[in-house]
Amino acid sequence: ACTNNSDAEIQPARKGQITIGFSQIGESSRWRAANTRSIQDAARIQNVRLIFSVAGLSQQKQISDIQSFILQKVDVIAFSPVVEAGWDDVLRAAKAAKIPVILTDRAIRTEDPSLFTSSLGSDFISEGISAAVWTKNEFRKAPGPVNVVELSGTPGSAPAIQRRAGFLEGIDGDTKFKIISSRTANFSRADGKRVMAELLRSHDDIDVVFAQNDDMGLGAVTAIEEAGKRPGKDIKIATIDAIHDGLVALSNGKINFIAECNPLVGPQLMELIQDVFLGIPVPKRVDTRETVFFRENVDQYINDRKY
Ligand code: GZL
């Protein structure tokens, strides 16, 4: 669990120490916990003073976190925006206060790119494309139609919007593939199970599930089993993240493909913060390092996966 040390007593900055305010999405997922731990560990190692706020899934709370960081005159603000839109006003206030902003994990939609200095995170579109390319290859011999259901993430979030866009781009107009239903399951395992059970009751011809993260895919595995079908065989499943439980399901053949979405951005974030603080030019966009997993290559990674 991540501590919300913006409430705890923050030690005053030591001479020359950088202070960063970070507003985190307060999900209870293993992915998010690993993301938080990576940032906190990297700050400690780099001697960066971290004021860390956990905002629940509330954009309003994140906006008030950022306003609080401005009042505290932190050196740099970073946050993982829970949705893409609606940040211009608070980021204009940060700009007026001459506090650089780094977007972490997720990204925002804005007409004014000067409102943030750099954006560090995964390329959600390429994750979606990878899932689609795998799906097309998996069903290359099927005459069609190949019926796809999509379990999408929290509405309005960059990963939910961009993973879908990537999946459609990867399908590339191949009319054999029909997305017969797209439902949000909020990136959660419980919602993934509930929504997949509903989909199984209304469709008896689902060939593949595109789940926008492992947690929803793992929920779908349970629902498919409870419906008396074999996940990974009767209904194929492609997901994104590559958390430990997802890799285990991949190894057991219950999930068929996983595109990695790497939460461990702490070291790259601290490097960006130090460069920004020193006035060293930084790239507008930094993609995190990630790969893809199949049943054939997954076993070597499972034991080292700490989240
Ligand atoms: C993606 C991240 C997403 C994960 C989900 O970078 O924002 O949020 O893919 C998590 O597991 O909910």
From TrEMBL:
Where in the cell? Cell envelope
What keywords tag this UniProt record? Signal
Q: Name one GO molecular function term.
A: carbohydrate binding
Give the organism the record lists: Paractinoplanes toevensis
Protein family according to the UniProt entry: Belongs to the bacterial solute-binding protein 2 family.
SUPFAM superfamilies in the cross-refs: Periplasmic binding protein-like I
List, alphabetically, the PROSITE patterns matched.
Answer: PROKAR_LIPOPROTEIN
- Protein name, per record: LacI family transcriptional regulator
Q: Name one Pfam family in it.
A: Peripla_BP_4
The entry's cellular-component GO terms read:
cell envelope
Q: Which domain of life is it from?
A: Bacteria
Domain Periplasmic binding protein positions: 20-272
* Stored PANTHER family: D-ALLOSE-BINDING PERIPLASMIC PROTEIN-RELATED, GALACTOFURANOSE-BINDING PROTEIN YTFQ
